[in-house]
Amino acid sequence: MSLILRIDVDRPYGRRSLSSHVMSRIGSDFYFPAVRQLGYLHDLELILNLLNDSGLRSYVFFRRCTLPSGAVMRLIEAGGHVAGLHLENSRSFENFQNELRLLEWHLGCKVSTFSKHGSGVHKYGLHHYAPYEPEKYLSWAEKSGMKIFMGNLEDPTILPRHYGDSILFFPSAFWLEPHWRDTKSFTIEWLVNEARTRDVVLLFHPENVIVDAKLMEHFKYIICNSESKIF
Q1: Do 13 and 35 touch, CB atoms closer than 8 A?
Q2: Is 68 helix (H, G, I), strand (E, B) or coil?
Q3: What is the number of domains present in the chain?
Q4: Dihedral angle of Cα 92, 93, 95, 99, to the nearest 10 degrees
Q5: Cβ–Cβ contacts within 10 Å for residue 138, how many?
Q6: Is 71 a domain residue?
Q7: Is a pLDDT exceeding 80 seen at residue 1?
Q8: Residue 129: half-sphere exposure toward Cβ, Cα within 13 Å
């Protein structure tokens, strides 16, 4: 039994400074070139290097504004990670297919796993559709031949289940960032111990971990005391 590591790559330039925030916002809503020298996906590179050094594999979910750079793709290949779609515009099946095809074209391979950007409350960007409708996404996944959907509920005691004949559905996750977690009930120690008896999804965002020393301390503790699993 292991951790299922889920990385949601939301911000192309992170949130280290005002300029990185502005570049991320422009890139999300309109267009900003993917320039590694300006910090494009730099936070993700740091996280993947830590995971690769620890021998842990993860699912890495990309928005259309955070499509993986060459450097990130090499780190994913070296670590045996799995790239997935972080669905943003979920207004229709056609929009879902458009985002999926864009990522598959960029990666040069079929994508079999996805998650949803946002949990249904706030609108995060011009193209983002806020409502969270997991049963609808599962039917789209089945039509598209996908295998895994990771949901956005915040109770890590909810167990995974199968949808139809082929889709593995993880409804909920342990959110590393305390804003989305009941920190009294679900501590870092709870997660490490729980993952010794069953599979648990750990969800985090690289840009938040990198800028927060306490979160980074928790992240390093988890990866030093856990195993990970890819389905």
Answers
A1: no
A2: coil
A3: 1
A4: 140
A5: 17
A6: yes
A7: no
A8: 15
Closest-CA residue to 173 (of 88, 31, 77, 61) = 61
What are 130's two structure tokens?
Answer: 């806020």
Kindly state the tokens that stand for 201: 């999804």
Backbone phi, psi, residue 53, to 5°: -65, -30
Contact 61, 115 (CB under 8 A): yes
pTM of the model: 0.96
CA distance 155 to 142: 25
- pLDDT tens by residue, 173-228: 999 999 999 999 999 999 999 999 999 999 999 999 999 999 999 999 999 999 99
The range of the structural domain enclosing residue 33 comes to 3-224
Q: Which residues pair with 79 in a beta bridge?
A: none
Residue 110's CATH number: 3.20.20.370
Closest Cα partner for 7 from 53, 43, 54? 43
Sheet of 200-204: strands edge to edge? 161-163, 167-172, 148-153, 113-116, 82-87, 58-62, 3-9, 200-204, 174-175
DSSP string over 113-174: EEEESS-SSS--STT------HHHHHHHHHHHT--EEEEEES-TTSPPEEETTTEEEEEE-E
Token pair, residue 86, equals 């972080």
Query: Rounded distance, CA 169 to CA 152, Å?
Result: 11
Residue at 231 is within a domain:
no
